[in-house]
Design goal:
Elements (H helix, E strand, L loop, with lengths): L10 E4 L1 H18 L5 E7 L3 H9 L6 E9 L10 E5 L9 E9 L3 H11 L5 E9 L12 E5 L5 E2 L15 E3 L3
Parallel strand pairs: 2-3, 2-5, 5-6, 6-7
Antiparallel strand pairs: 1-9, 3-4, 8-9
The protein binds inosinic acid and magnesium ion.
């Protein structure tokens, strides 16, 4: 993998500049929408950590951050639930307007399970913002409230998204060639 590291990511799909502009717009929009409200930005680790970091710095209202990490068992033999919480939130979300910050919605299965878990905890409100949306592969009907980029059915890496744990540190979104 290290030998082909650069070759695998030659095709830039979304540039650093385009990401920066879109994230700034989204931050402005959220700042207006949530002004005066207790806001909790929740990121699903690990893919969304860079998006969250940049998004929260484009918001000029008070907000708190929290993280959840999950493990999925879709198509597995587990009979109890399809998503296991590896790391749970530290906040009582019933006191907050929660914004889930996601890297990409692909099949929609992970996020729809996370939403079920969150709704049981009665947040003041719940919205979803995703950096990328890949609607062609959707299995569960699920739409983000805010989606920054809709992309075709390609596997992408960079800006937090990984292939086998690598490429998260690329500053742009690239199409990945295996
Ligand atoms: P799904 O919507 O449940 O299918 O899963 C979404 C998760 O799969 C995302 O949060 C990513 O972590 C991962 N994922 C889906 N598509 C891609 C991709 O193109 N590149 C990198 N990770 C992806
Ligand atoms: Mg993810």
């Amino acid at each position: 993998m290290e030998n082909n590291y650069q070759e695998a990511v030659k095709c830039v799909l979304i540039s650093e500049e385009d990401i920066r502009k879109a994230v700034k717009n989204a931050g402005n929009q959220l700042s207006q929408e949530y002004a005066g409200k207790p806001v909790l930005l929740v990121s699903i680790l690990k893919g969304a950590f860079i998006f969250l970091g940049d998004l929260c710095r484009c918001m000029d209202i008070p907000c708190r951050l929290d993280f959840m990490e999950t493990k999925s068992y879709f198509g597995g033999t587990e009979s109890t639930g399809t998503v296991e919480i590896i790391k749970d939130l530290n906040h009582d979300i019933s006191k907050y307007h929660v914004i889930i910050v996601e890297d990409i919605i692909d099949t929609g299965r992970t996020l729809s399970e996370v939403i079920k878990i969150m709704k049981k905890r009665n947040p003041l409100s719940l919205k979803i913002i995703t950096l990328l949306d890949k609607p062609a592969r959707r299995i569960v009907k699920l739409d983000a409230d805010i989606s920054l980029f809709t992309i075709p059915d390609h596997f992408v890496v960079g800006y937090g998204l990984d292939y086998n744990g690598y490429y998260r540190n690329l500053p742009y979104i690239a199409e990945f060639k295996e």
